[in-house]
């Protein structure tokens, strides 16, 4: 085999290895990004549910003070 061809093949192999390393890093970053995005939305949903859970007794007390019960609210929405 010609020395020039051999040198080109070795350079190609080195570039392929470097490309593979970079692709693995990009894949890892994308996976981390997806995990962070899912975690972000889970935290937002949990905060909304928790806020409703803790605010509900105050809303019930406020509606009770004005003599409004859940059945009258249901009738208003119909």
Alpha-beta content class: mainly alpha
- What percent of residues are in strands? under 5%
Number of domains: 1
Which descriptor suits the 3D outline? Answer: rod-shaped
Strand elements, count:
0
- Sequence stretches where pLDDT stays below 50 over 5 or more residues: none
**Assembly state:** single chain
Terminal CA distance: 86 Å
Task: Give the helix tally.
Answer: 2
The main β sheet shows up as: none
How would you concisely characterize the structure shown here?
The chain is an all-alpha fold.
Please give a structural write-up:
By secondary structure, this protein is an all-alpha fold. The chain has one domain. 91% of the residues lie in helices and 0% in strands. It contains two helices and no strands. The termini are far apart.
Q: Notable features of this structure?
A:
78 residues; mainly alpha; 91% helix; 0% strand; rod-shaped
